[in-house]
Amino acid sequence: MRCEIVAIGTELLLGNILNTNAKYLSEKLAELGIDLYYQTVVGDNLSRVSDTFRKAMERSDIVIATGGLGPTDDDLTKEGLCHALNIGMSVHEQTLAKIESFFKSINRPMAECNKKQAYIPEGAQIIENNNGTAPGILLKAKAKLFVLLPGPPNELYPMFENSVYPYLKGNAKYLLKSRMLRIVSVGESTVQEQLKDIFDNQTNPTIAPYAKSGEVHLRITAKAESEDLADVMINEMESKVRNILGDNIYGCDQESLEAVVIKLLQNKNKTISLAESCTGGLISQRLTSVPGASKCFMNGIVTYSNEAKQKFLGVNEATLRKHGAVSSETAYEMAEGIRKVSGTDIGLSITGIAGPDGGTAEKPVGLCYIGISYDEKVETYKLMFGGNREKIRWNSSIKALDIVRRIII
Amino acid sequence: MRCEIVAIGTELLLGNILNTNAKYLSEKLAELGIDLYYQTVVGDNLSRVSDTFRKAMERSDIVIATGGLGPTDDDLTKEGLCHALNIGMSVHEQTLAKIESFFKSINRPMAECNKKQAYIPEGAQIIENNNGTAPGILLKAKAKLFVLLPGPPNELYPMFENSVYPYLKGNAKYLLKSRMLRIVSVGESTVQEQLKDIFDNQTNPTIAPYAKSGEVHLRITAKAESEDLADVMINEMESKVRNILGDNIYGCDQESLEAVVIKLLQNKNKTISLAESCTGGLISQRLTSVPGASKCFMNGIVTYSNEAKQKFLGVNEATLRKHGAVSSETAYEMAEGIRKVSGTDIGLSITGIAGPDGGTAEKPVGLCYIGISYDEKVETYKLMFGGNREKIRWNSSIKALDIVRRIII
Asked: For residue B4, what is the nearest residue in chain A, using CA coordinates?
């Protein structure tokens, strides 16, 4: 069963709105185990809408269209489909009555154009719309299934959920289930190489890597007759992948790196404090974005100037003079200082050159030192990050959070 | 000139991600006055990718593809295009050298598969990628223009803006020019109401409001024969709008609120320090994301606990006991304290309840106090924000930055 989604609306082609309907429907179809091969967006133009339906029915079994069911002249979805199938339309009396009574109920005269919404293609069934005047349309023709849904998400979502989803589920044999593994410290190409044997031999479940800013996400998707069976298949694949990638996998699905760090801190009953220079509060902000962070995040200080590093963290003036603010020695004293002044289990520091200015041959833009004070010791890390200011700050915040994560594990 | 956008990636068909690239490109093409007739999404499958290119070149003059340029086996965009055009690929030596030196610079071994990114279709030019390893591709073939762009938005946006946009603009007959006015403190519907007369009578330039998180952006677009003429038309419309919205307009185009605040501080030779509670470093992070912020941003302290508020900012224990951490009195002392301890011209403080927990009937989630100490005084503001933790933190950071902006003006 191959499906495709056709979204109709010039506002999508002008970039005025995001095609959230396509994402929503795609997710639901994946859940149902229905293969989706294409999404198309076309404007409010009769010949292009009918061309799009023609192409879609050539290559797919199910065509789900969104938008263009309203009362105005640029609502052309039903017209386009009828054109493509070479069939006519007729009025659906109950729908007409419902629209008329709706206008009566709100005490407004019904503009003539509203009648348009009560016309349906020959042989079609309507799908009740409890949140608007335009009904959805279900039509079987030429051995294909056509489902026309209204564009507004508050009409489309309940209509799909209540009527279309159960209908398609009754006809589906398999379901698809996915899990996303979240990976740090290695790039997409390394993941690909390390998992080469699995990639080469994958059939079901399938795996696919996605490069995210500073991270890699690996999707595992199983096709099975039941959800339980899909879980078993995914678990088996996950443990194969974990055997290879180990601790580089930090979380699953929607879990962010900062949420994982906060959870670990809470579980181990540890507290943390932060001294940030180049990241300017980014790491504090990420950690405190997690609900409940206040239980383990004590405080963070953004010490941009040398004076602030001395005053708040007790960094030695001699250290700054001899080694500079961006140095292993300064990171060391910052980590120790913030931990001491805050009385936390862990003190994390970061100092670097985020650019675009401030780099030298010896200390280029992208150079970054991270310090971490815990138990009886302080460790420092020297790192180089590529890209612009935003990327350097973001990737160094990932590295710093990952260092904390690995130490707590 | 008819254009279409082809997005390549199974993750789009699975509904894992939104097709934000298509929206972005659609908006830009509209700005350029290039007609966009179709957007298509296709998965990582060679024959379907090449079918899609074949169909696209049949009906359009320009085909812009996104995604599938990376190093892994499921990156098939160039292969699909070559297949559709029946041409080969060859290695682009400079690109290969650049990729190799990138891996050297970050001290990581280059996985063999990365070489794939240096292969380009016969007759194609590369488009430099300053934010990743995969270059973009520009190819004229069969009287059509093909533009292949990387999928990650942080690579696609600058590549399009710096290289593709100017290229397409040079080939356009008439031009559309836009300016975006950035507005705080009033919502979209208020903007719509206040500008009702302008909205009702717009022809050229046109104006359109966009609701952004916590802000409203108002696009003014003029269609003209020359850039100078467009500028004159836009300036005229802008001053009409400014007469009505006044200081609620904080900036233009890409200028962020934080960048405007940093620029104002620099121009007036003022310094600032921050004491954040509920925003957890978000405001510091926003200000320091602006290149050159170190000249006026001295330091920021994230004082999550009462102890930290006393220790670092000198907030009175009695104040915290009597009024609580989330109170006008505490915001007052935090602002005064951070300014004093940092020796800056301005001290900004924020304390509130971001949720989801911690709210009471008297002090609900979303309650927030902002304090600002400057010249001889301290002002405090009591505010209520709706939404979830993320939204409360974000919108309160906007309000705090806006308070600083209005005081410096």
From this structure: A13
The pairing of strands B297-303 and B272-276 is parallel
* φ, ψ at B227 (rounded to 5°): -65, -40
Any CB–CB contact under 8 A between A305 and chain B?
A: yes
User: What percentage of chain B has pLDDT greater than the value 70?
Assistant: 100
Distance CA B94, CA B106 (A): 19
Question: What's A54's DSSP letter?
Answer: H
Distance set, CA A291 to CA A259, A288, A401, A405, B305 (Å): 9, 7, 17, 18, 15
Is residue A155 classed exposed, middle or buried when 0-12, 13-18 and 19+ CB atoms within 10 A define those classes?
A: buried
Domains and CATH numbers, chain A: 2-171 (3.40.980.10), 175-252 (3.30.70.2860), 257-408 (3.90.950.20)
The tokens describing A342, both together, are 């805050």
B40 contacts on A by Cβ (under 8 Å): 38-41
Is A39 close to B38, i.e. CB distance below 8 A? no
Judge: B39–A37 Cβ closer than 8 Å, yes or no. Answer: no
Closest CA to B42 of A54, A48, A40, A27: A40
- Complex-level ipTM: 0.76
Contacts of A145 by beta carbon, 8 Å cutoff, 6+ apart: A61, A62, A63, A138, A139
pTM confidence score:
0.78
Please count the other Cβ atoms lying within 10 Å of the Cβ belonging to residue B175.
17
Rounded Cα gap, residues B121 and A163, in angstroms: 47
Report chain B's C-alpha Rg in angstroms: 26
* Nearest Cα residue in chain A from B45: A37
Contact B73 A199 (CB under 8 A): yes
The single-letter code of the amino acid at B173 is K
In tens, the pLDDT along B135-157 reads 999 999 999 999 999 999 999 99
Please tell me if residue A219 touches chain B, with a CB cutoff of 8 Å: yes
User: What's the rounded Cα separation, in Å, for the pair B68 and B207?
Assistant: 36
The interface residues of chain A toward chain B in range 140-179, judged by CB-CB distance below 8 A, are 176, 178
CA dihedral over B377, B378, B382, B387, signed as positive or negative:
positive
Given the DSSP bridges, would you call strands A272-276 and A346-352 parallel, antiparallel or unpaired?
Answer: parallel
Give the pLDDT confidence of B237-271 residue by residue, as tens digits.
999 999 999 999 999 998 999 999 999 999 999 99
Q: Which residue has tokens 């290039």? A: B34
Query: Is the CB of B19 less than 8 angstroms away from the CB of A23?
Result: yes
